[in-house]
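step: validate -> pass
step: tokenize input -> pass
step: predict -> running
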Amino acid sequence: MSIMSDTQATPTGLLAEPLLVAMDLRRRFGPTVALDGASIQVTAGEVVAVMGPSGSGKSTLLHCLAGILRPDGGEVHYRGSRLDTLSEDVRSRLRRDDFGFVFQFGQLVPELSALENVTLPLRLGGVTRREAERRGREWLGRLEVADVAGKRPGEISGGQGQRVAVARALITGPRVVFADEPTGSLDSLNGELVMTLLVDTARQQGATVVLVTHEPRVAAYAEREVVVRDGRCVAPVQAR
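step: predict -> pass
step: emit ->
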């Protein structure tokens, strides 16, 4: 099975090779079928919203694209190479170096300060503490939460925590940012602020964004929507 015929045109009119390609993905959790032949491709620099009702398989699709989960069947390719057959160590390094993640509840480390959370990917990658903290404070400033640098996640608001999570996702200069319901725990005002900062900053960095959501107002930040239903990508929608 191939979806390469869906290669998209860039603004210059040239055909762009996809950055991420998933073909006929299948994944079960016990008797529950999460993915049942899902296929998608994402071009470098795109902001793509993956939509669908609860339980449709959209989060499982994102986790397979990011190398967090291995599909039971099908293939995932990243930059032209097979991703799903790599070892866990190699996929972990790829997630650290090439990917950034924003989840619904931030998933900040509760024992660490906001600054320590943001700099964690850099420290794991071998960056010195001094340089990591310099870059971390810069990113907290860009995401308008410099004033919470010394506070722990339990001492800041949900909106501030999500902006800290966005800073952590972008600090390494990832090629792809995976965002799974990034505004699901926020009110409308904070949700809009987080989405604006996430999408605008990712575009400035030249990063691709794969965004999972069930909310049309959040999907509106994307250039293209893909609908997942019953474990399949059933209705790709081109940019408005």
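step: describe -> The CA atoms of residues 153 and 161 lie 6 Å apart.
step: cleanup -> pass
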